[in-house]
């Protein structure tokens, strides 16, 4: 092989590395969530849009490198989710994974992120294990968790007279955790739990579960599920007539599900949330921009807003560290810097990875109170983040004692 040919090969190789399609020198963010199942309208493409908006608003670069967003559907299957994460980390140069509704997948990806020294930021994930015994120095839990929602609503509903509970619970880590937190709050507040039943993810017929709830003697039915499961089960409960003598409580009833559930059925229901599009000028401006970009024209929920805000903070940390390759260093920088954005306001990230910000007790409006398609909720109370989330000492994350 002569020297001229070798020289040409070297030039070609350098052109390929520098070509726009070869982005080995970019900061790469992966949005991993459900894009075709029961959580698709709650995260799905909306979380991808939120991440891209964050990158654009930040200027498109971090640590002097372009920022790219990739996305995939984990189909609510742990093997598929962890397979995508492994490929992203080992072959595709992804530096951080965001969102991940489905706590079983989130826990698996959190472990892999620590193993590969990458970053995992949970916005759609709910389990408190992420900031408890399964915490890692590479994980941040941003938007909400089962403790804040389950405990907050359990306590509030008992104080309003709903003292006898029956739970209809999704049969996986998230549902179990949500029921546990709500049940403990109910008992601590002077209520009692008369029974519970568990259902598979994506259940279409809740008749047998609702009959058990009716026969239990409870006056509150707590739905410890999420996404389309919550909407389907609550709608069928209303059709069964449970609303006449039972209070229906969707422990994670998201705003996106309210139009399909209908204000007639949902009016008066209370939910906990750290974000609502109509809180202030900043949230309203973001919601308008978001709705213009998403095919459904839906307004953003808390988990999609959490992706936006956490990506902004992540990019600030990448800039501070000077690169994205050392995930542990980036998460440490995220914890060192106070958070501040137009959607969640000022906050901070604890040693255990828990992001702290206020939560709001919101009530579903009656049909006559609503002035537009997404005018669905009103603020009943504001809860300080330190009061809403589990204390760091109670979580027993090993990082908290370091």
Automatic annotation (TrEMBL):
<dbReference type="InterPro" id="IPR028082">
    <property type="entry name" value="Peripla_BP_I"/>
</dbReference>
<dbReference type="InterPro" id="IPR051010">
    <property type="entry name" value="BCAA_transport"/>
</dbReference>
<keyword id="KW-0029">Amino-acid transport</keyword>
<protein>
    <submittedName>
        <fullName>Branched-chain amino acid transport system substrate-binding protein</fullName>
    </submittedName>
</protein>
<keyword id="KW-0732">Signal</keyword>
<feature type="domain" description="Leucine-binding protein">
    <location>
        <begin position="27"/>
        <end position="365"/>
    </location>
</feature>
<comment type="similarity">
    <text>Belongs to the leucine-binding protein family.</text>
</comment>
<dbReference type="Pfam" id="PF13458">
    <property type="entry name" value="Peripla_BP_6"/>
</dbReference>
<feature type="signal peptide">
    <location>
        <begin position="1"/>
        <end position="23"/>
    </location>
</feature>
<dbReference type="InterPro" id="IPR028081">
    <property type="entry name" value="Leu-bd"/>
</dbReference>
<keyword id="KW-0813">Transport</keyword>
């Amino acid at each position: 092989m002569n020297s001229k040919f070798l020289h040409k090969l070297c030039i070609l190789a350098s052109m390929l590395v520098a070509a726009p399609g070869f982005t080995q020198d970019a900061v790469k963010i992966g949005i991993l969530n459900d894009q075709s199942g029961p959580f698709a309208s709650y995260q799905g493409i909306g979380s991808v849009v939120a991440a891209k908006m964050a990158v654009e608003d930040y200027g498109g670069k971090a640590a002097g490198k372009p920022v790219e967003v990739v996305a995939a559907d984990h189909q609510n299957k742990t093997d598929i989710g962890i397979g995508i994460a492994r490929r992203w980390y080992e072959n595709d140069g992804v530096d951080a994974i965001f969102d991940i509704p489905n706590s079983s997948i989130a826990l698996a990806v959190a472990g892999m992120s620590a193993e590969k020294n990458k970053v995992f930021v949970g916005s759609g994930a709910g389990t408190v294990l992420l900031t408890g015994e399964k915490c890692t120095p590479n994980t941040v839990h941003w938007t909400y968790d089962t403790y804040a929602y389950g405990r907050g609503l359990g306590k509030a509903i008992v104080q309003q007279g709903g003292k006898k509970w029956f739970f209809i619970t999704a049969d996986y880590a998230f549902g179990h955790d949500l029921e546990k937190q709500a049940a403990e709050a109910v008992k601590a507040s002077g209520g009692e739990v008369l029974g519970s039943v568990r259902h598979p993810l994506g259940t279409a017929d809740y008749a047998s579960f609702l009959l058990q709830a009716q026969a239990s003697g409870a006056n509150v039915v707590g739905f410890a599920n999420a996404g389309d499961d919550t909407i389907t089960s609550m709608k069928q409960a209303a059709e069964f007539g449970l609303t006449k003598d039972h209070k229906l409580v969707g422990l994670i009833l998201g705003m996106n599900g309210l139009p399909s559930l209908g204000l007639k059925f949902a009016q008066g229901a209370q939910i906990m949330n750290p974000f609502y599009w109509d809180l202030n000028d900043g949230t309203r401006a973001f919601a308008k921009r978001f709705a213009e970009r998403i095919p459904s024209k839906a307004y953003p929920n808390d988990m999609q807003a959490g992706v936006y805000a956490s990506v902004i903070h992540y990019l600030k940390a990448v800039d501070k560290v000077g690169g994205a390759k050392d995930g542990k260093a980036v998460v440490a920088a995220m914890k060192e810097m106070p958070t501040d954005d137009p959607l969640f306001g000022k906050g901070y990230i604890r040693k255990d990875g828990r992001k702290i910000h206020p939560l709001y007790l919101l009530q579903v409006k009656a049909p006559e109170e609503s002035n537009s398609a997404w005018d669905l909720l009103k603020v009943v109370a504001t809860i300080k983040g330190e009061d809403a989330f589990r204390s760091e000492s109670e979580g027993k994350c090993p990082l908290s004692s370091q």
